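anyone seen this seq b4? input:
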Amino acid sequence: MRPGDPSTVFTVSELNNAARDLLEHSFGLLWVEGEISNLARPRSGHVYFSLKDGTAQIRCALFKSKARLLRVALENGVQVRLRARVSLYPARGDFQLIVEHAEDAGAGALQRAFEELRDRLDAEGLFAAARKRALPVSPKRIGVITSATGAAIRDVLSVAARRYPLGAIRIYPVPVQGQAAPAAIVKALALANKRADCDVLLVVRGGGALEDLMGFNDEAVARAIVASALPVVSGVGHEVDVTIADLAADVRAATPSAAAELVCPDLSAATERLPALEARLRQRLIGQLVAEQRSLVRLNARLERQAPRRRVQIAAQRLDEAEQRLARVVTSRLRMHRQTLQLVEDRLARTRPEQRIVAARQRVAGLRQRLDRVGVSRLDNAQRRLAVAMRTLHGVSPLQTLARGYAIARDANDQVIRDAHSASPGDRIAIDLARGRLDCTVEASRSDRTTPQQTEYQ
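predicted toks r here
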């Protein structure tokens, strides 16, 4: 086959093999420098990984015989210099390097960029604890900046529904990785601050490799978080992952779920404290009322000693008004707390499983009624089919044949006799009639149907 001939038709295998030969003969051993990612060590002992720079990557294969000779530890994020041959894996058509030798070229570019940006922003004071704000105790609305389809938003919504159903969630959907992620996160932060309808913002995403988290290691994202008028909680990656966004945020959480728990108070625990708070409020108000009454007694005594009756009357009138205002305040506060308690109890009642159990039982009862109706219907159909089958069997029953005057002869082994030669003179046979049976002895037998058979029965 000639590759330059347009009439040549290759199979896929032939084309891949030809491309591999062309690559391996066009390039000898060469040196390539880049950062390791997607490292895999299967049980075969071979090592597979990708070598990348800021804009491209290539697959690499280091076979077991060469891997044993390496002095450098291959890890994700490590910058290495490889001596390798350019090749192609024919089974998949993958362009790859066959690694012969590897040397350590220093820390990965992404890690170096992260550390340089971290140190520079820290020197500017963006990460200083003094500028960070406290979180609201009971936020009415929580803004969440994350992917609308990722696991992080599901974790946040699950925690909020369990701990704080009174709080509303506003989602600002953004890509959480890739080149478009930093600009989208900055835009979402600006939009949330412009609307000013949230009490706190969560910037979250799930875990990933360092390159997956680079959208949160962006200088523009860090400055937008610091400039936010709303407090920001960052929950990016797993507990071991630390990003620039985590350092710039007012509070850093280990995971998206932990971020949600920081801003969502445990409503069930607060509800359990309401009776104790009401009792404390009542006791304090009663104590204040008792103190006012004691003060009234002292004032009356002074008025009687020092002032005319008119002053006493005026003071008494003012006291009455103060008592009425105090009673109204006490009643109003008690009513407000009862309404709050009732609202919480109603919302808790809607989330209790008893109502779901009642609904489930009603559905089960309906299904049981349907099942009973279907069972009765099928039973009726089966009984009708049984009756038809019984009539059919009755029509072909041998008892009907015997009732018409026929008989069935059986030998001593209870086998039906169909041929006269099957019985010999002196054999004992039984003859079944429509009613009863005859036990007989064969005297003689003939197979001629035209001559009456000479048979006697005893």
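The CA atoms of residues 33 and 81 lie 4 Å apart. The domain at 113-265 is CATH 3.40.50.261 (Rossmann fold). kinda curious what u guys think
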